[in-house]
Amino acid sequence: MKDIFSIKNKVIIITGGGKGIGRDLAVNMTKRGAYVYAVDIKFQKTDHDNKFLFQSMCDITNYKKFEKICDKIFKKYKKIDVLINCAGVSLSEQKQNKIYPMERWLTTMNVNLTAAFNCSQSVIKHMIKNSTGSIINITSIVAEQGFPRNPAYVASKGGLKMLGKALAKDWGKFGIRINNLGPGFIKTDIMKKRYNDKKTRKYREDLTLLGRWGEKDDLVGPCIFLASDASRFMTGQDLYIDGGWLANSGIE
Fold first, then answer.
1. In this structure, what CATH number is given to the domain that contains residue 179?
2. CB 225 within 8 A of CB 231
3. Is 4 a domain residue?
4. Of 127, 225, 106, which is closest to residue 176 (Cα–Cα)?
5. Beta pairing partners, 40
């Protein structure tokens, strides 16, 4: 019987694949036989002996360079099966009642939203040649709720969510699926400070129905689902991996 969850021999590009969630996804997907191209501005020195994991150093705001990477991958494999838009920045304002700086807004939007749009455009032009493909946008629970002192991050993730739906509308007729995967509070380097603060950690645990923070590996299964034929009739959707954060009314 065919394994509908198989990603073996799929060609996958992951932006932000040099660290954090992106790196964890890259390593785990290669373990399941996928050819993974991790794209980032810098990389860890580990895991480079993995014959299925390829590292491409690139600032994704350099659209021409990313496009050349995609062209090279397509030339080699004659296909690009999956793009995971995982690269992102979070530039919060720590002080209350302070106006959020415009430069942080522009940087965040450029990386989290505009670059994701351009990266998607770059792979779509190849996906349409084979009438198939899956794009997975890593959004966030902040795409649904307002969070304090980081309006650029909230707006960029909300925009990325709607970008996914717009692209799903435009490219579904070509067999290209675009879905959003929204993590809750995951233990990553970017969240290390908040996780190490016992008061903040417990507060967020108490508001999560499963009573804990997520691990990076908690996103692997859902990502494989969206990358595989198991989700072949799913597009334009939001899948939240948040331990029940969004479903919690807060009422006891």
1. 3.40.50.720
2. yes
3. no
4. 127
5. 57
Q: Which positions of the chain have pLDDT values less than 50?
A: none
The CA–CA distances, whole Å, from 71 to 68, 80, 131, 155, 244 equal 5, 10, 17, 31, 40
Count of residues for the chain? 252
60 within some domain: yes
pLDDT of amino acid 223: 98
Instruction: Please state, rounded to an integer, the average pLDDT across all residues of the chain.
Output: 95
The contacts found for 92-98 with CB under 8 angstroms, 24 or more apart, are 92/149, 92/150, 92/153, 93/149, 93/150, 94/149, 95/149, 96/148, 96/149
Residue 132 belongs to domain spanning: 11-241
State the helix-helix crossing angle for 20-30 and 220-227, rounded to 10 degrees: 60
Cα 36 from Cα 17, distance rounded (Å): 9
Is 194 contained in some domain? yes
Q: Establish if 2 belongs to a structural domain.
A: no
pLDDT for res 229: 97
Give φ, ψ of 133 to 5 degrees: 160, 155
Q: Residue 51's pLDDT is what?
A: 82
Domain count within the chain: 1
